[in-house]
Amino acid sequence: MYHYIEFPGQEQLIKIINARFQNPPSEIVEKAIDRFLELREMMEDERGETGKKISTSELIDWFAILNEYPPEEIIEKLETGLPFASTLLKSRSDREDFL
């Protein structure tokens, strides 16, 4: 049996992060989710609907790392790149394709 569950949208992802972390800075939450969704969309464009894409669990792991650093530093890193990309991009081919 197969049941399709639609991937959460931006607002739902914000709720998930806010529920998992105590008072995360809203600007980091929004920028991190924007970058995450951009990457996910790139993966979908490259691999199609059925290809492996980053998931909510990887977002949570990634945000846990981002949340350990000063907000100003993370905001700057999110605006210029994909900090701690190996948390999201687990395979060599992912890193080659999306970094």
Reconstruct the topology from this structure.
Elements (H helix, E strand, L loop, with lengths): L9 H11 L5 H22 L8 H11 L4 H10 L11 H7 L1
Plain-language structure description:
By secondary structure, the protein is mainly α. It has a domain at 26-45 and 53-98. The protein has helices spanning 10-20, 26-47, 56-66, 71-80, 92-98. The chain is globular, with a radius of gyration of 14 Å. The termini are far apart.
What is this entry, summarized?
By secondary structure, the chain is an all-alpha fold.
**Percent of residues in beta strands:** under 5%
SSE string: HHHHH
Q: Can you summarize the main beta sheet? A: none
Q: What structural category do the secondary elements indicate?
A: mainly alpha
Radius of gyration, taken over Cα atoms and rounded to an integer in Å: 14 Å
Number of helices: 5
List keywords for this structure.
99 residues, mainly alpha, single chain
